[in-house]
Design brief:
The protein has 346 residues and is of the alpha/beta class. Helices cover 32% and strands 23% of the residues.
Length: 346
């Protein structure tokens, strides 16, 4: 039986016995706020409680580093910051830091309520370097904030100078999503992991920053993709496994069509040869393939509800260097209980 953790009473100077693997987990946006839900504290808290219960078995057996998305939250904060007449919205890097603290607080607290009381936690505001010359700044693709109807989105775009685009059945604001280059707080994260601290970091893909030629670090008006930032984090930490947890049970080829097929296992070369949507599964597949190619270790994509089974290789999509091409699931057998067919991934 798990003992609820109420006090942060573990001495940092006392090395705890490190067991199991080092696992980096990226929580999809729908783990925190389901598509179409009002971004209220109550809804987010309820979803984080579900995520905490799913992650608890991993935290008991392995060293755990958690990152997460923030698209709905950072968009909500951007809207709130314009409510005062005459005041412009805060920059996206500042709002990214704000959302990372908010989400990290909830994840840390709810995990602490289901793990043993001597398990230490830390939430780290994480600055991630991006390139000022990244072409993503000229072609916004990252959806943030709430869903709108097309006409409402077009009106807001004209009023506020937004880029907009379709996302599922609605329309959302689009912002630049440059590729992550470096994690500035990496040494701090490594130190905490060495002391068996569960770390929540690189939230929302990390706080986007640009290092100028004069050595000055400044914020960037962007949101970094959390799966690509998570891959960089996992690779930099020499993690044993990188898990991308969302609300779908596996990676599907021909998503949204009658020919959709779920992938059980794949080599990075075979998976990269397939085509996936850039706004949803594409970054996850790219991140998985890169992590496996660069490290020779394991990446997996699947349902948050099945996190422990995904790490064990029993469900979801597993990417390994030892895979022989692509192994497909039989119809309806990809690991999510009661799954009736593919849905839009987060």
């Amino acid at each position: 039986m798990l003992v609820a953790r109420r006090l942060y009473n573990c001495s940092f100077g006392e090395q705890r016995k490190a067991v199991g693997m080092l696992v980096v987990v990226a929580l999809g946006g729908n783990a925190l706020l389901k598509r179409g839900e009002i971004p209220s504290e109550e809804n987010q808290r309820r979803n984080v409680q579900v995520a905490a219960r799913a992650l608890a078995p991993l935290g008991l057996e392995h060293r755990l580093v958690i990152t997460h998305g923030n698209g709905p939250q950072v968009g909500m904060l951007a809207l709130e910051s314009t409510c005062v007449p005459g005041r412009e919205s805060y920059a996206l890097d500042v709002l990214g830091a704000e959302s990372s603290g908010m989400i990290g607080y909830m994840v840390e607290q709810e995990l602490g309520n289901v793990l043993p009381e001597d398990q230490p936690f830390a939430t780290i505001l994480t600055q991630v370097e991006v390139d000022a010359a990244d072409p993503a700044f000229q072609a916004p693709t990252k959806p943030i904030g709430p869903m709108y109807g097309k006409k409402e989105a077009e009106g807001l775009a004209a009023e506020r100078g937004w880029s907009i685009g379709p996302d599922g059945k609605g329309w959302r604001r689009l912002v630049p999503s440059p590729r992550p280059k470096r994690i500035f707080e990496l040494r701090v994260i490594q130190l905490l992991v060495e002391h068996d601290v569960i770390v929540i970091c690189a939230g929302g893909g990390g706080i986007p920053t640009i290092l100028r030629e004069d050595g000055i670090l400044i914020g960037a008006e962007a949101v970094v993709d959390k799966d690509l930032a998570g891959e960089l984090l996992a690779r930099s930490l020499l993690a044993d496994a990188y898990l991308m947890l969302t609300d779908v049970d596996a990676v599907y080829h021909s998503w949204g069509t009658p020919e959709a097929r779920a992938i059980r296992c794949a080599s990075p070369e075979a998976l990269a040869a397939l085509d996936f949507p850039a706004g949803s599964m594409g970054p996850k597949v790219e991140a998985a393939c890169r992590f496996v190619r660069e490290t020779g270790r394991v990446a997996a994509i699947g349902s948050l509800a099945n996190a422990a089974a995904l790490l064990a290789g029993d469900v979801g999509t597993r990417v390994t260097v030892g895979a022989d091409g692509i192994e497909w699931y039989e119809a309806g057998a990809s690991g999510m209980a009661g799954a009736s067919g593919p849905r839009s991934p987060s």
